[in-house]
Amino acid sequence: MYDLELDRVITRIKEKGHKMVMIQLPDGLKPKAKHIVDTIRKETGAEAIIWMGSCYGGCDIPFGLEQLGVDFLVQWGHNQYLKEEGWSGEE
């Protein structure tokens, strides 16, 4: 279960008056894309689109955002930490 912090995204969109929002997700979070888009559209009235290309971190910014009219890019990431029995974190 991930906390997508959509409330922070929605607040930012409303404060700045963004009209075209692109969401960028790593493959593991792409199943959440429809929920994110639907929530953004409903709560803000902004259009939201999904970047279906790669997402390898914050430095992986899609090309052509201006041509698409995107005025706000939101990138999500995920990380899951597992505590393994007997593992101290040292090698």
In words, what does this structure look like?
The structure is a single chain. The protein is an alpha/beta fold and about 90 residues long. It has one domain: Rossmann fold. It contains 3 helices and 3 strands. It has a 3-stranded parallel beta sheet with strand order 2-1-3, with helices on one face. Helix 2 links the parallel strand 1 (about 20-25) and strand 2. Helix 1 packs parallel to helix 2. The longest helix is centred in the middle third of the chain and has 12 residues, at about 35-45. Mean pLDDT is about 80; it is low at about 80-85 and about 85-90.
Helix and strand element order: HEHEHE
- Unreliable parts: 80-84, 86-91
Radius of gyration computed on alpha carbons: 16 Å
- The N- and C-terminal alpha carbons lie at a distance of 29 Å
Structural class: alpha/beta
What proportion strand?
A: 15-25%
Q: With helices defined by DSSP (H or I, 4 residues minimum), what is the helix count?
A: 3
CATH architectural type: 3-Layer(aba) Sandwich
- Anisotropy-based shape: globular
Fraction of residues in H or I helices:
25-40%
CATH superfamily: Diphthamide synthesis DPH1/DPH2 domain 1
Number of domains: 1
Mean pLDDT: 82
Number of strands: 3
What name is given to the CATH topology? Rossmann fold
Strand order of the largest sheet: 2-1-3
User: What does the main sheet amount to?
Assistant: 3 strands, parallel
Topology:
Blueprint: H1 6-16, E1 20-24, H2 33-44, E2 47-51, H3 65-68, E3 72-75
Parallel strand pairs: 1-2, 1-3
Helix pairs in contact: 1-2
